[in-house]
Amino acid sequence: MEEVDIGYNLDVALEQEGVGSPIGNSDFATKLEQLMGVWCKQIELVLTESEQMRKEADDIGPSAELDHWKQRMTKFNSLLTAISTRRVKLVYATLAENKSKLCPIWMDLDRRVSDVANEARDNVKYLSTLDQYLGPLQTSDPMGMKDLLPNLINSIRMIHTISRYYNTSERMTSLFVKVTNQMIKSCRAYIMQGSNGKVWDQEQDDLLERIDGCIDLKNEYQAQFAKAKDKLADEANRIPGGQDKHFDFSENYIFGKLENFCHRLECIKKVIVTLRVLSKLKALRVDGIDSILKNLEAFESNIKMRPGELDYKRADWDNGFKDFLASIGRLEADLQSFIKDWIEKPVPTTTVLEILAMFQPLSKDINLNMQEAYQDMLRRYLKQDLVVARGAYNKQKSDPPGPKNFPPVAARISWARSGSKIIHKN
Questions:
Q1: DSSP label at 248?
Q2: Are 29 and 18 contacting, i.e. CB atoms less than 8 angstroms apart?
Q3: Rounded CA gap, 102 and 96, in Å?
Q4: 335: helix, coil or strand?
Q5: How far is 107 from 104, CA to CA, in rounded Å?
Q6: How far is 131 from 96, CA to CA, in rounded Å?
Q7: Which residue of 58, 100, 352, 388 has the fewest C-beta atoms within 10 A of its own C-beta?
Q8: List of the chain residues with pLDDT < 70
Q9: From CA 105, how far away is CA 37, in angstroms rounded?
Q10: Which of the 8 DSSP states describes residue 101?
């Protein structure tokens, strides 16, 4: 508390007037009340500030929670020390003997300060049990964080069960959300591997493996939470009045950010896998495919140039991903039309079959309607190639051409074999 000049040497004046005795000097009595009033206002201000809603970033981790309560404990322990000094006690005792109206106010403030200090000490005591996990949570990869989860969540469960002050639904939910925030930060750092570039600059196979690791962490986090919830519910049901100890927290609030982050990772994974498949189109040597490849390069560049691919809160990236999916749909339609046009071209059937064979491996990952393409190919064959072969057969069957100087039967056999080869070739 701040020193206040009341025009008297406080220690000397108290001795002269007599501690705990009626004050004969009315001016001194007034000054003492003014001093106590100033102290009351200072303490009230500190308490009011402590009761205000905390302003904190929405992505801070659990270490900040422990730091907050440590600072609060230090602050109110210091205040308790200040109001417990001999000088303050002498002032209070003197005013109490003189039946000052400030004394009940002072006693209420003293009680409130003690309550806040006790709350802070208790919360620091229990939150400190998490300290051994908070450092690794900031530095570990998803596999390391998965190993931490059982003990970390069990420690949080114990805080909820036995702490005197911290076990409210609001505080426990906030603590879990901060754990979620730290997981997202650590996963983002793990994916980028210290790079300040874009996620697309990473080696793709390693990147896909890291993405899967982050998604596995999310699933394990939810599984361990559910396990702790069930265990706590079972324990609470055995205790009369134990319903207050249930893990009845908002799971949407706790896991929502991580769900959104992992959904973004799934989108990134789909982009990588899709572009990897479509890149095989560039190896095809087929007349007329250049325009499709240019479209592919355009929407690949568009999605990769968009900023904030790992920031799940950026709606503009989500819109870009929707455009990417729409572009994939248009490209598939263009490829289907491209294949259909080749089937209808007046080129040898063998040429068309070779083109269909080129696209066949891609049909596992791209909707090319290959079954319909082969049906169209069969209709073309029946309509064109077999009709031509049947016409030649009907025209030549009575007097089939054959090599010179061949006997009639040998000439017919040679002609039949030649026709059969043409049919099978086509």
A1: -
A2: no
A3: 9
A4: helix
A5: 5
A6: 45
A7: 58
A8: 1-28, 236-246, 380-426
A9: 9
A10: T
CB-side exposure of 56: number of CA atoms within 13 Å?
18
Nearest to 339 by CA among 320, 315, 360, 318: 360
Residues 6+ apart with CB under 8 A from 22: 97, 98
| 8 φ/ψ angles, rounded to the nearest 5 degrees | -130, 150
Q: Is 2 helix (H, G, I), strand (E, B) or coil?
A: coil
DSSP codes joined into one string, 8-75:
S-HHHHHHHH-TTS--S-HHHHHHHHHHHHHHHHHHHHHHHHHHSPP---TT--HHHHHHHHHHHHHH
* H or E stretch covering 185: helix 169-192
Type of residue numbered 291: S
Longest dimension (CA), the chain: 155
Q: Determine how many CB atoms are found less than 10 A away from the CB of residue 340.
A: 14
Supply the angle between the helices 169-192 and 251-278 in degrees, to the nearest 10. 20
Pick left, alpha or beta for residue 193 (phi over 0 → left; psi -120 to 50 → alpha; otherwise beta): left
The secondary structure of 134-184 as a DSSP string is HHHHHH--HHHHHHHHHHHHHHHHHHHHH-SSS-SHHHHHHHHHHHHHHHH
Minimal CA–CA distance to 31: which of 15, 9, 54? 9
pLDDT in tens, 193-252: 988 889 999 999 999 999 999 999 999 999 999 999 888 887 766 665 555 566 778 899
Residue with tokens 């806040």: 116
The 10s digit of each residue's pLDDT in 298-339 is: 999 999 999 999 999 999 999 999 999 999 999 999 999 988
The answer to whether 123 and 68 are in contact (CB under 8 A) is no
**How many degrees, rounded to 5, is the angle at CA 177 between CA 175 and CA 180?**
115
The answer to whether residues 277 and 365 touch, using CB atoms and an 8 Å cutoff, is: yes
